[in-house]
C-alpha cells in the first residue's frame, strides 16, 4: 500500500477516533498510568489473611482481607472499596495489579493493620443493607483484632468514593453500630477519599454536573417524596460526638464531587467535629486510589499522620 495512503488513514483514525484506535489508546494510557502511579509493596504472605468471614453468613461478600503488621498493639484501618455501590471488590485488579491489596500491604509495613472489606452490591440489596454490612465489618474488627496483636481502641474507618460514603455513614449515624450493641465511639477517626453522595440535598451539586437520576436509582428506594435525599445523606448525621475526620479529594476530579467533600467538611466543622480537609494535587477521582499506597504521595502522608496523631490521642484518653 502506498505510504501516503497509510499516513492518511492513520491521520484519519487520530482525528476521527476509530473504535479500535480509541480502545488501544485507552488501554495504553491505563497501563502507562498504572506503571507510573502504582508502587508495589511486599509483605510476607503469612501476614495476609484472605477471605475472613466478618458475619455469620454464607454470602461471599461478607468477607475481608486482613493485613497484619509485625509486633503488637498496632492501630487498624478498615478500608471500604468504591464502585458506585453496584460494583467493585476487595480483590480488584487493574492491569494485573491488586489495587486494594497494595493499600493493605503498604500500611501493614508501616505498623498499621488493614482490613479491606467486601459488601453486598446493588441491586441485590439497598444502600441500607450496604451500610449494615460495613457496620458489621467494623464490629468484627473491633471484636477480633486484638487476637492478631491489634489495638481495638485505635480503630479507623476509611473508604474511596462509594466506600467513603459507607465509612462516613457508619461513623456519623449511631444506628448501624447500635444495632450491633456498639457505639460509634469505637471509631477513632474516619478517612474519606473522594467521597460521593455525602449530601444528596445540595442543589448546587446537581448544577455542577451530578446526575440526579443516578443518585435516585441508588438511594430513592421507591420513596415518592424528596425525603430520601436527606435520609440517605451522611451529612444529616453530622453532630457533636462524632469521631474526627480526614476529608480528601483530588484536584482533578469533577467539581460536583469536590463539592460533596467540601460540604461534609463544613458540616463537621459547624457541629464542632474535628475535620481536616486535604486537596490532593495532580490526581483524579480514580487515580487518587493508587496514591494511597505510595510513600511519596500527599494522600498517604496525610493518612499516616492522621492515624498516628488521632490514634495516639485516643490511646492516651483510654489510659486516663
What CATH architecture of the largest domain would you give? 3-Layer(aba) Sandwich
Number of domains: 2
Low-confidence stretches: 5-26
Order of helices and strands: HHEEEEEHEHEHHEHHHEHEHH
Average pLDDT, to the nearest integer? 90
- Report the major sheet: 8 strands, mixed
What's the tally of helices?
A: 12
What order do the strands of the largest sheet run in, or round the barrel if closed? Answer: 1-2-6-3-7-8-9-10
C-alpha geometry: globular
* N- and C-termini, Cα separation: 82 Å
> If you compute it from the alpha carbons, what radius of gyration comes out, rounded to the nearest whole angstrom?
21 Å
CATH superfamily of the largest domain: Alpha/Beta hydrolase fold, catalytic domain
DSSP summary, beta strand count: 10
By CATH, the topology of the largest domain is: Rossmann fold
Question: How much strand content do the residues show?
Answer: 15-25%
Output the CATH class name of the largest domain: Alpha Beta
SS-derived structural category: alpha/beta
**Share of helix, binned:** 40-55%
Characterization of this structure:
The chain folds into two domains: 1-37, no CATH class; 45-319, Rossmann fold (3-Layer(aba) Sandwich), CATH 3.40.50.1820. The relative contact order is 0.12. The chain contains twelve helices and ten strands. Mean pLDDT is 90; it is low at 5-26. Helix 4 (127-144) packs across helix 5. Helices cover 43% and strands 18% of the residues. It has 320 residues and is of the alpha/beta class. It is globular. It has helices at residues 3-16, 19-37, 99-108, 127-144, 162-172, 174-178, 203-207, 212-219, 227-232, 255-270, 288-291, 298-319; strands spanning 48-53, 63-67, 74-80, 93-94, 97-98, 113-117, 150-160, 187-193, 245-250, 275-280. The protein has an eight-stranded mixed beta sheet with strand order 1-2-6-3-7-8-9-10, with helices on both faces. Strands 4-5 form a two-stranded antiparallel ribbon.
Amino acid at each position: 500500500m502506498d505510504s501516503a495512503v497509510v499516513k492518511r488513514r492513520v491521520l484519519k483514525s487520530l482525528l476521527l477516533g476509530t473504535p479500535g484506535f480509541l480502545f488501544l489508546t485507552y488501554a495504553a494510557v491505563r497501563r502507562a498510568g498504572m506503571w507510573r502511579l502504582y508502587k508495589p509493596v511486599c509483605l510476607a504472605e503469612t501476614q495476609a489473611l484472605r477471605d475472613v468471614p466478618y458475619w455469620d453468613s454464607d454470602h461471599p461478600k461478607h468477607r475481608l482481607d486482613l493485613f497484619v503488621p509485625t509486633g503488637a498493639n498496632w492501630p487498624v484501618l478498615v478500608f471500604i472499596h468504591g464502585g458506585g455501590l453496584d460494583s467493585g471488590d476487595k480483590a480488584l485488579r487493574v492491569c494485573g495489579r491488586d489495587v486494594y491489596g497494595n493499600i493493605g500491604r503498604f500500611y501493614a509495613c508501616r505498623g498499621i493493620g488493614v482490613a479491606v472489606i467486601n459488601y453486598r452490591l446493588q441491586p441485590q440489596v439497598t444502600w441500607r443493607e450496604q451500610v449494615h454490612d460495613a457496620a458489621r465489618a467494623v464490629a468484627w474488627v473491633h471484636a477480633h483484632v486484638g487476637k492478631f496483636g491489634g489495638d481495638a481502641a485505635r480503630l479507623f474507618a476509611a473508604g474511596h468514593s462509594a466506600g467513603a460514603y459507607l465509612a462516613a455513614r457508619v461513623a456519623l449515624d449511631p444506628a448501624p453500630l447500635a444495632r450491633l450493641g456498639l457505639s460509634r465511639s469505637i471509631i477513632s477517626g474516619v478517612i474519606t477519599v473522594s467521597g460521593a453522595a455525602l449530601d444528596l440535598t445540595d442543589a448546587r451539586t446537581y448544577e455542577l454536573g451530578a446526575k440526579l437520576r443516578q443518585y435516585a436509582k441508588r438511594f430513592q428506594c421507591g420513596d415518592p417524596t424528596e425525603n430520601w435525599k436527606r435520609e440517605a445523606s451522611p451529612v444529616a448525621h453530622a453532630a457533636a460526638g462524632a469521631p474526627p475526620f480526614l476529608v480528601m479529594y483530588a484536584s482533578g476530579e469533577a467539581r460536583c464531587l469536590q463539592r460533596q467533600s467540601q460540604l461534609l467538611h463544613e458540616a463537621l466543622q459547624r457541629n464542632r467535629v474535628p475535620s481536616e480537609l486535604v486537596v490532593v494535587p495532580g490526581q483524579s477521582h480514580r487515580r487518587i486510589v493508587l496514591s494511597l499506597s505510595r510513600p511519596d504521595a500527599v494522600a498517604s502522608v496525610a493518612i499516616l499522620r492522621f492515624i498516628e496523631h488521632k490514634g495516639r490521642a485516643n490511646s492516651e484518653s483510654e489510659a486516663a
